[in-house]
């Protein structure tokens, strides 16, 4: 991967963090300060977040807005809302209940608190049964 949104240093720091190294260990290895590693890691994670949101937007262009999971919805109720909304479209959703809950949580962690939706989540469905969130 040559042309990414991450600098070489950001990729290096993220790789070390994924290997379980602390920021201080990385700083020692790279001959810099822990504060510098913290800044590099924070910038890398922000770039990753922005890239993920951009991809999600692109995916929704080929999808139909299916429903909204309103603020306050219990995540355990979200699959039912989604399945009921998808039924009239005759498109089989590719995820079982548990996978769907995990997908929502992992794609929209900033909109989830505990078991509840803390900010409305728009659910999109494409013809292949993939779901995207906005």
Automatic annotation (TrEMBL):
Signal peptide coordinates: none
DNA binding protein Tfx C-terminal domain span: 51-133
Pfam families on file: Sigma70_r4, TFX_C
Gene3D superfamilies attached to this UniProt entry: DNA-binding protein Tfx superfamily, archaea
Domain RNA polymerase sigma-70 region: from-to ranges: 6-49
InterPro entries xref list: RNA_pol_sigma70_r4, Tfx_C, Tfx_DNA-bd_arc, Tfx_DNA-bd_sf_arc
Molecular functions per Gene Ontology: DNA binding; DNA-binding transcription factor activity
GO biological-process terms attached to the record: DNA-templated transcription initiation
Matching NCBIfam families: PRK03975.1-5 (NF003057), tfx (TIGR00721)
Protein name as it appears in the record: Transcriptional regulator
